[in-house]
Amino acid sequence: MEFKNTICSLLEQINSPMQLRKLTPTQLPQLATELRAFLIQTLDQCGGHFAGNLGTVELTIALHYVFNTPHDHIIWDVGHQAYVHKIITGRREKLCSIRKTHGLAPFPSREESSFDSFGVGHSSTSISAALGFSVAAKKNNTGQKTIAVIGDGAMTAGMAFEALNHAGDIHADLLVVLNDNDMSISNNVGALSNYFARILSSKLYSTVREGSKRILESIPSVRKLAKRTEEHVKGMLVPGTLFEELGFNYIGPIDGHDLPLLMNTLSNLSQLAGPQLVHVITTKGKGYVAAEQNPIAYHAVNPHFLAPALSSSVDKPKTYANIFGEWICDMAAIDERVIAITPAMREGSDLIEFSERYPDRYFDVGIAEQHAVTFAAGLACAGQKPVVAIYSTFLQRAYDQLIHDVALQNLPVLFALDRSGIVGGDGATHHGCFDLSYLRCIPNLTLMTPSNENELRQMLFTGFQLTTPCAVRYPRGTGVGVSVEKKMSCIPIGKAELRRKGHSIALLAFGSMLQPALSVGESLNATVVNMRFVKPLDEKLLRNLAKTHDLLVSLEENVKVGGAGSAVSEFLHQQGIACDVLILGLPDRFIEHGDPNTLLAEVDLDAATILSAIEQRLALSLTF
User: Fold this and answer.
1) Minimal CA–CA distance to 175: which of 67, 19, 57?
2) In which domain, by residue range, is 345 found?
């Protein structure tokens, strides 16, 4: 169904916020309706983040209508909710390319548009970045306004409160929009709270409030009583006392789908100096009933979700996350010490069943990766066996805690490291490209890379038995389709697996690279080894291979710099073993979003390009 045939043409006139601001306020509700229809129809074609974007339609319109973007800066937290922002700022025609190879970035990107003030992808960075913009604007006397839009989920991260504390302390000119779509206080939204929002955000109230403070400075006891009375009254009516204590003028909660109210409040706040926070209540999936009823399921959608294909009787292949979810439930049944920890990744890490079967041993700590790791360290000190289910890209955010609180104390914390390697549409902010490099340099840590589903299960069990820290890193999506043994068995620590015996060339495959290595091995009659361990390496096998082969080729879905191949090369050098080593892995640059197989081919990590790289190396060696 074509967009032009289903909705009116207001949206087609909007290719920039300047054009948006030419509309009359009475036209904006129609524009919101058209935007929702466009979002639903477009994402049905291409897929993408869905529920959150439907919830921020009116808020995005109001922000661009009231503020003079891009002179004024809107900084989005994460960016799952910024599709409407992309549409309004001239990228409507390209929206269907979002998350695809060479298409629109999945999140705001400074390289993509001058309206994307700050590049994002990880949570809870917006207030810190916005504070930087605000301080710079004051220093340069540009008169620019700065707005941070942050979701209630992102407010679970300590970084957000660090920034709030700093902004309040220096009395920065900054507006924080708290987009709340999941808190129980939504009942506060209504005529009374909207009335108070209008009053509290008005310049008259602000002037009287500040003037009263100055008058009462000379009467400390009366001023203290007035302050307590104000906090008590506001605390009964609105949940803003915490933000007030951090130095912010708190406004709300207000209805985030009421355009006149939003614009009136934002307009009032744009004239106020100092730190302001407006609490906006929105509905995830607004305008699409199924998404409103189940926003988690509709957080992101696949193409053609409006008319899903008939379900097949054939069982869907299990993902690596599914294997982890089954393993931890089985492990918990036989060991009462098992405790699962995740920083807001229950569904993605497949901990749903565990959370239901063992609620007293399941902890979703919110978007608080640092806390998750140190919390696990404390549990381990107290004799428990914590398992931290976390994405590779998010463990980066808890690196100090991993070193200082876990590894330094040599504690038995198991890290189930999902989404390693190339992950696809979420792009550079979410690819797990660095974990082998940043983990293998940490003392006391065992690091494993399964090549299939069954190996993942056995490695998790192996790591769980250790009395030291361990990380098992595995890819996103389905494996190679091997049968999984329910029996728990250990893999000998540091023991690789010879998968094919050849001559002259030995391919050392780490994790996901085993399948292309086997294909290339057949073509070259090469030896193929499933290395399994990055730390410790199978040193005995490496010595033998170096003595019996002319070329060792390491393969990893990780950056070459400091990765598994570097570990192999370092070991041989330390042993004084002379052997030609070709390290193949991800390049020393950030890799954009797109289809994983296409991206791997582009960085020379599919079977064809691996074969070509080896042949080129062999040809080069023959010239010397």
Assistant:
1) 67
2) 320-473
pLDDT greater than 90 at residue 291: yes
Give, rounded to a whole angstrom, the gap between the first and last alpha carbons of the chain: 63
Q: Is 157 helix (H, G, I), strand (E, B) or coil?
A: coil
Amino acid, single-letter form, for residue 520: V
Angle at 488 between CA 362 and CA 479, to 5 degrees: 80
Name the pLDDT band for 597 (thresholds 50, 70, 90): very high
Neighbouring CB atoms inside 10 A of 524's CB total 19
**Confidence (pLDDT) at 621:** 74
Does 510 score more than 90 pLDDT? yes
Same domain flag for 46 and 162: yes
For 28, how many CA atoms within 13 A lie in the half-sphere containing its CB?
26
Residue 479 lies in a domain: no
Q: How far apart are CA 217 and CA 425, in angstroms?
A: 57
Give CA–CA dist 562/534, Å, rounded: 11
Verify whether residue 353 is a known catalytic residue. no
| Token pair in block for residue 370 | 């640092």
Instruction: Name the catalytic one among 361, 397, 419, 476.
Output: 397
3-state secondary structure of 81: coil
Distance CA 276, CA 555 (A): 51
Write the pLDDT tens digit of every residue in 319-353: 999 999 999 999 999 999 999 999 999 999 999 99
- The encoded tokens of residue 569 equal 């090369």
Beta pairing partners, 432: 421
Query: In this structure, are 296 and 325 located in the same domain?
Result: no
Query: b/e per residue, 80-91, with b = 16+ CB within 10 A?
Result: bbbbbbbbbbbb
Residues 176 and 297 in one domain: yes
The string of DSSP letters for 546-563 reads HHHEEEEEEEEEEESTTS
CB 65 within 8 A of CB 259: no
- Buried b / exposed e along 314-347 (16+ C-beta atoms within 10 A): eeeebbbbbbbbbbbbbbbeeeebbbbbbbbbbe
Q: How far apart are CA 65 and CA 70, in angstroms?
A: 12
Question: 86, 91, 92, 284: which is the annotated catalytic residue?
Answer: 284
> How many beta carbons lie within 10 A of that of residue 266, not counting itself?
24
The 3-class secondary structure across 520-534, one letter per residue, is HHHHHCCEEEECCEE
Nearest to 86 by CA among 72, 68, 69, 67: 69
Tokens of 290: 């199924």
Q: With contact defined as beta carbons under 8 Å apart, do 85 and 70 qualify?
A: no
Residues 250-261 have a mean pLDDT of: 94
82-121 residue pLDDT tens? 999 999 999 999 999 999 999 999 999 999 999 999 999 8
State yes or no: is 357 an active-site residue: no
pTM confidence score: 0.88
Residue where a domain stops, chosen among 473, 506, 523? 473
Please pick, among 58, 326, 369, 453, the residue that the annotation labels catalytic: 369
Residue 482, CA distances (Å) to 289, 485, 597 in order: 39, 10, 20
Any catalytic annotation for residue 99?
A: no
| Residue finishing a domain among 245, 269, 301 | 301
Establish if 484 belongs to a structural domain. no
What's residue 216's pLDDT?
Answer: 52
